[in-house]
Amino acid sequence: AKETAVLDLGFGLVLNPSTPFDVAEPFLELASILLVMSVEPGFGGQRFIAGVLPKIETARSRIDQLGLPTEIEVDGGVTAEVAGVLCAAGADILVAGTAIFGAPDPVAAVAALRSAAAGGVG
């Protein structure tokens, strides 16, 4: 008999900046991750849209209230200047592209992001 490998693939939801949290809420119990876009998808180097912070806070509150393991990921315009605020709002995972790869010293940029994020968590 041939054995078949079973992959446990997670289910994720993505919210664009203009999409309200309410759209994702009915599906939260199915999701292993909620990706909140903090720029309009399409190209790198855009500025962070601060208007997504209340959406992250609402998502964190609801996920915690329901006792779900769903992680909140934020992608778009993530820099050391906003990393702490994002983590304080409830983000678990931060995606940074230009802030790292566009920096003169990518290693220092990662260290600054980690430090800022840790400050937001603590």
Short structural summary:
With 122 residues, the protein is α/β, with parallel strands linked by helices.
Task: Write structural notes for this entry.
This protein is an alpha/beta fold. It is built from four helices and four strands. It has a four-stranded parallel sheet, with helices on one face. Helix 2 runs parallel beside helix 4. The longest helix is centred in the C-terminal third of the chain and has 16 residues, at 106-121. The chain is globular. The chain starts with 11 loop residues before the first strand and ends with a helix. The model has no long low-confidence stretch (mean pLDDT 92).
Task: Give the helix/strand layout.
Layout: E1 12-15, E2 33-37, H1 53-66, E3 71-75, H2 80-89, E4 93-95, H3 98-101, H4 106-121
Helix pairs in contact: 2-4
Low-confidence region ranges = none
Q: State the shape.
A: globular
Helix content: 25-40%
The tally of strands reads: 4
Q: Which structural class do the helices and strands define?
A: alpha/beta
Notable traits:
single chain; 122 residues; alpha/beta; 4 helices; 4 strands; 14% strand
